[in-house]
Structure formats: structure tokens, C-alpha cells
Amino acid sequence: MADATPTAPTPSSGIVELRVHGVSGAGADQVLDRPYVYQVAGDRSGGFYRPRPGYPDSTGTDGVTLEAYRWSDLPSGTAVRTLSLVFLLPFMLCNVAFWMRPANRAAKHTILALCRVLALTLTALYVLSIVGVALDLIAWRCMDTPSCLAGRSWLSWLGGRPTGLRLGVLALVPVAAIGLLWWLGARPGHSFDAFRTPSAPTSKHQLSAVGQWDGEPLVGRLRSVHVAAAFATLSASLLAARASQHRSWVMVILLTATGAVLLSCLALVTVVPSIDRTDPSPRVDGVFRGLRTIACGLTMLVIVHVVISPAPWPQGGALPGYGAIVAWLFVSQTVLVAVLAALVIWRRGGGQRRSPMRALGVPVFMTISAGLAVAFSAELVYRVADLLDRGGTTADGLETSPPLAYKWAIFGFFLAVVTALLVAGLVTRMTRRGRRRAARAIVAADFPDAPPQAADRLRRVEQAVARARFTERLEPLSVVYACLAALGLATSLLGLLQLLPGDVAQRYLGVPEGMVNFLIGSGSYAIAAILLGLVVGGIFAYRTAQFRRYVGVLWDLGTFWPRAAHPFAPPCYAERAVPELAKRITYLVEQGQGVLLAGHSHGSVLLAATVLQLPTRITERVALLTYGSPLGRLYSRLFPAYADEPALREIGERIGWRWINLWRDTDPIGGWIFASHRPGEAETLTGPAATVDRRLTDPQDVVPAPSDSVPPPILGHWPCESQEAFADAVRDLTARLRPARG
């Protein structure tokens, strides 16, 4: 424990206000709004802090004991976050999509199986992109082209060697890439047993499962399957090239074994229920590790066979079979996404709030994940091809030209992005008047007596409210983009037919071939710009507080959920944060304290999952204060099986409806949970749930206070611990807690 100080005596109030921050990554002193703090539990990654005793104002409202849980370092460090945001983003989105299944349990296992098969295709695509660079472009094409080898001593030493030797040596590059991914996925995490509060399941809702079980056994089995599939993909690429000119009984055995490994991988993630066991099982785990070992050994045998095989190799062109494998993989992803979308639309059930995204998050996010993975892979191959062919402006029609499937992928991705941007601009313009009209009504109700000199300030507030309401428009836009991305993937089928994008466009649409080639080149640079933007955004996200709130919410949304679809996604921090919070709350209650949980933004999600895990004897002494919470606005829409209205109502019932939610109309992320309580709007909700939400006027005024020279700021998604409304909510909840403590 860092900087430990003896715990101060508990104030007479007997209530601890435990604050959990959101995605801002604020320090404990900022969360507590006290300059001097010390750590009372946890470590540097996730710890509990209190104000130092002996300093003025070391307690909270009405003398409650202040405590903060700082978890911002749990997802990972700044550098790791930045790199992961770029290279692991498709894997992370794939894993998030896994948890977006419909609330209806019908066809649940089929939907989850399809998600895991799509996750396998992402791993295969990762390997194929490295194979395309190392084996197709360099070992096969460049080393057979004297102009490509000229002046490249790092390649020319292999240029005169036999084709099999070149392929065998450079096959070590994808082997190393697989090893790197394997090592990243196997990084040791935090000891789960140190943070778990042993207890029987207390809730029937799925959100309570987050952090309740150790995810490492499942992740370990998935990791073994994906490593096996990765090595089998490399083996299949080498064998496809060798089989073009040579067939023997050895080839038949190796091909059969490779096919058996791939089929075993599909079976293990689709029809074998043992993969979802949450407890370690030496026998089950041994089967998965055995498959991984077989795949590794098989790849080594394939590489040796390619090197020593005396049969001649074909000359010129692309690596035999590689383009077809890539195209078929893209087509397979398209079919899987289409089947997944059809199944979800057929089986999706009702939700708390009807919306275009209701239960469609699974196919939408899976399509976006696959589209990004294809775009990144195509850009890698395309950019290396352009680098090797140093005399051309694009890689189209050159000796080092990438496979047609990649060209179609870049073309389709570019058109999807451009079309989506045009649609977004159109929607923005079409909805601006309605959003402004609604914002104007809200502002007029909040500031009916604003003086004429506040007109400019009123317009700024209206703009902030209108921008915040655009969040709801992102749902149909994401569906539109997913449909366009799926169409882009489907065009890969034309690559199987050996049709060039320029020829097709000119023949059937009348678009000049040169224009299409220009668009392909532009699409490649656009993907490179997106990659660079992600890197720069990841860096600035931890240097600029305002920017961090938008990037951070995406990151923490993705890493909140356990890795149940793709093992190479960033680690789940909730596996520690939720049980650690549960253990701390249990300890405080057992010490005779009442606990007021105060969660901002994503901190409210952590607290919601925690409350569902606490036994009744603990929740009887717990109250909940949420502010800037995405539970109702985002989570209930995106994760209907886990954060639906019944789950939110159970949270209220567990704590005796000692729950207040503060929200602002200017907040683009947080919102109301049960009832908006906007002025002038009639509310039909009755019962305890109707008392949860409290709307805050933001800003507090549009003219400067008598003691100030500028008007109060527009806070939006910023925390509100320093506002009087927060103190009033604390007083209300602590008053309800004291009778409950008897």
C-alpha cells in the first residue's frame, strides 16, 4: 500500500460516501475534491483513498466519511492503451458485440457461436495479412524481380535461393507475429482470488455475472483455439501454394491434418460447452492445449516440407492459392454477418427503449469489427506493395500488386466511409432544426427571465443541448454504416471471379477505370489516415481532458466486458474492479457503517454490477447516487440482455430505492434512467422508480453572479461533486440510510 496513514476515527455519522470516478482518469484528490489524500486499501492500479485527517474540511456533507475508488490504471497504461486502440480495436469491438445479444434467450447459443466463429475469422485475417506481406509480396514476387531487389541488401541475400527456401525462411515472420499475439494475450493479469468476495449468485440478471467469475479459464481456452487456428491458417497458405504444382501422399496427410485442426477449432467454439466452464479443469484445458501444440508442430512440419520438397514451383504471378483464400475468407465473413443479422432480427425481443439499435448491436458491431480488420489488413498489404514497387503511385497493375480481394476491400471500405459521412452530414442537417427547436424549448423553460444581454449565452446553451441530443442519431447511422460495410465485404466475391474494380465500374456503370484506381489509392491513404488518427487520438486522449471523455468512454465500454469472444482483445478490468468494490463495501458494512455509493459516468456502471452481487444483508445498508450515468441512455440500448429495465429496477429494489440519479440535458453521454422530469413534460411513470431521476439545470445561470465577471460554465458530462445539488442528494440519501441502519 502506497503512502499509508493510520485510518482516522469514524465520524459520528457512521456513513461512508464511496465515490467511483468515470472515464476521466482523475486522481483521488480530484474525485474527493480534497488536496491531501492517502491510500487505505488496494494498490497503484486500483486503490481506495481518503482525505488525510487533521486537515480542514476532511469530511463530506453532514460529516460523512469520504472515500474514493480510483480504477483508471486498471485497463492498462497510456502507451498500451494507445497501441491497443489501433491494433486491437477490431478484436475489442468483436468482443463487445458478443455481449450485445438480444434479451430473448431464444437462439442465444447460436448467436454466441456465430460471434465466436467470426472472431476466429479475424485471427485468420490477421495471419493472412502477414502472409501476404512476407510470403506473397516479398518471398514470392519481389525476390523473383531483379528491379525489386536492386538496392535492397536486406532482401537480396535470399534473392537467388530456391523458392521453397525463401518461403520457408520468411514463413518465420508470420510465426513470429502469431507468437507476439500469443504473448500479448497471455500477459499475466491480477490475481482474481485476491479480490473476489465469495458468495452465491444473488441476482438472476446477467449484469451480475460481470466480475463474479474468473475469466482466465475461458480466455485460456479461447487463446489456445485461436493460436491453433492461426498456425493452421499459415499451414493452409503454404500447402495451397505447394499443391499448385506438387501432390503427394505427404501433401495429402498434411492437408488432411490442417483441415482437421481448423474443423476442431470451429467445433470447440460452437458445439463444445466445456469452453464456457468458469472453473479450471485440467482434463478440459489439456484438450485445448493439445490442439494448440498439434497445430504448432504441424506448421513446423509444413515449413520443413516446403523447404525440402524437390518438385518445381510455378513462375510469376501471385503466390498460388493466396488470393483465393483471402477472397473466400471475406465472403465467409459476409455470409456469417448476414446470418447473424437475420437471426437477431428474427429473435430480438422487447427492450426498455425502442430504438433502431435495439438488439442489433451484435451484427452491427460485428460488421464494423470485420470491416475495420479487413481495411487494416488490406492497407498493410497494399502499402507494402506500394513500397516495394517504388516507381508507381499506386500498386494497381504492377508486379507487386496485392490480391484483387484486397483491392475490392479498400474500394468498398472507402465508398462505405464516404457514403456514411454523406449520410451523417445529411442527417445532421435534417435534424438540426428539430434538435434546435427542442433545445430552445428546454432553455426557455430553464431561463424564463433571462435578460436581453444574455442572448449570446442562451444560444451557446441551445447549441450544447442540441449537440448532446445528437447521440440518439448515432444509432441509425451506425446501422447504415454496418450495412454499407457488409456490402463492401460482399464485393470480395468479384475478386474470386478475377474481375478488376476499374473494369467492372467502367463496363457496367460508365465510371472511367482511372477514376476507380484513383479512388482505391485514395481509400488506401484514407485508411492510413484513420490509423494515424487513432494513434494521435490515443495520445491526446490522455493529455486533453475534454478529448479524453469521448475517447475514454469508447475504450472503457470495450474493456468493461470480459473476453468471451476474442482472447486477444484488451483485458477486462471489471474482473478486478467489481469484486474489489464488493469486498470493500462488504467490509465497511460489517464494520457497522452505512455506505453511500456515488458513481460518475462509467463508475455508475461498475456500481450497478456491484450492487447486483451484494447479498441482502449488505444492500440494506447501501444507497446509490449516480450522475452522468450511461446506464439508461447507452447500456440499456446496447446491452439489452444485461442492462435492461428489469435489471435496473432490481438495483433499485435491492437498495430499497435509496437511489438518486442526477443528469443534464447538455450531457451527450449520461442521461435519465427511468423518467426525464423535464419542465413542461407530463410523466406517466409512477412508483418508486419515478423518484430516482433528478434533472440539473446546466448551466446554473446565463448571467454572471454578482461576485463574478463571467457566467457559470456549461458542464455537460463533467462531474458535479462541487454543486449544491450533489450535496442535497447526499443529504437526502444519508437521511434515508440512517433509519435503515436502525
From TrEMBL:
Keyword list, A-Z: Membrane, Transmembrane, Transmembrane helix
Transmembrane segments: 79-99, 111-135, 165-186, 225-243, 249-272, 293-313, 325-346, 358-385, 405-427, 479-500, 520-542
Lineage: Bacteria, Bacillati, Actinomycetota, Actinomycetes, Micromonosporales
Species this chain originates from: Micromonospora vinacea
InterPro entries in the record: AB_hydrolase_fold
Protein name per its UniProtKB record: Integral membrane protein
